[in-house]
């Protein structure tokens, strides 16, 4: 009887471990990076990007940005983005470096098909009148199941984030050059 109980326990542990591994692997770690070169001084570009409390200053998809808690541009500030279609994205500032012209943030909750999302925006002076902006993120798809529905898979999650970044950076170039 003890052998049967031990076998059952060991089998259960093995099955649970396999399921946990399959679940973990089914929602892979994903990333997206978009870069743009802007023919303008870094200070001018940073002036548009720097305000965590106003992503709409350069991103055309954002209709409204509100600081819901904390102090704008201070680690821990929480902003609520309202998109043009009414969807919302709740984000927390995790690092802010005005001198280094960068900040990092995470998504707490959103309409986007991602989870475990952390991102960074860097503004880098290439020369006196040329700036490179890099927007990067690491995330997983929101639907962690082994067979997510179309539009909820890795390609959709990655494609959405690339499109968000590209839309913002393209407009940033347009309004600062």
What does this structure look like?
This protein is an alpha+beta fold and 177 residues long. The chain has one domain (29-176): START domain (Alpha-D-Glucose-1,6-Bisphosphate, Chain A, domain 4, 2-Layer Sandwich), CATH 3.30.530. It is 32% helix and 38% strand. It has helices at 2-26, 42-49, 154-176; strands at residues 30-38, 62-69, 78-83, 88-97, 102-110, 114-127, 130-141. Strand 3 (78-83) and strand 4 form a beta hairpin. The protein is globular and about 50 Å long.
Write the SSE topology.
Blueprint: H1 2-26, E1 30-38, H2 42-49, E2 62-69, E3 78-83, E4 88-97, E5 102-110, E6 114-127, E7 130-141, H3 154-176
Antiparallel strand pairs: 1-7, 2-3, 3-4, 4-5, 5-6, 6-7
Short summary:
By secondary structure, this protein is α+β, with helices and mostly antiparallel strands.
Radius of gyration: 21 Å
Q: Can you tell me the CATH superfamily? A: START domain
Q: Strand content of the residues, in percent?
A: 35-45%
Fraction of residues in H or I helices: 25-40%
The global form is globular
Average pLDDT metric: 89
What is the name of the CATH architecture?
Answer: 2-Layer Sandwich
| SSE sequence, one letter per element | HEHEEEEEEH
Kindly name the structural category. Answer: alpha+beta
Q: What is the name of the CATH class?
A: Alpha Beta
List descriptors:
single chain; 177 residues; 32% helix; seven-stranded antiparallel sheet; Alpha-D-Glucose-1,6-Bisphosphate, Chain A, domain 4; 3 helices; 7 strands; alpha+beta
């Amino acid at each position: 009887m003890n052998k049967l109980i031990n076998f059952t326990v060991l089998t259960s542990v093995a099955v649970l471990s396999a399921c946990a591994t399959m679940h973990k692997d089914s929602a892979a770690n994903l990333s997206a990076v978009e870069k743009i070169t802007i023919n303008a001084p870094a200070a001018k570009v940073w002036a548009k990007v720097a305000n965590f409390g106003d992503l709409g200053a350069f991103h055309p998809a954002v209709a409204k940005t509100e600081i819901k808690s904390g102090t704008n541009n201070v680690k821990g500030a929480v902003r609520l983005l309202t998109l043009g279609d009414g969807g919302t994205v709740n984000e927390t500032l995790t690092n802010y470096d005005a001198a280094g012209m960068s900040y990092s943030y995470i998504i707490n909750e959103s309409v986007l098909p991602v989870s475990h999302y952390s991102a960074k925006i860097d503004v880098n002076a290439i020369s006196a009148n040329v700036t490179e902006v890099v927007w990067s993120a690491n995330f997983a798809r929101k639907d962690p199941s082994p067979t997510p529905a179309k539009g909820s898979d890795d390609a959709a999650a990655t494609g959405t984030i690339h499109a968000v970044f590209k839309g913002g950076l393209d407009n940033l170039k347009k309004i600062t050059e």
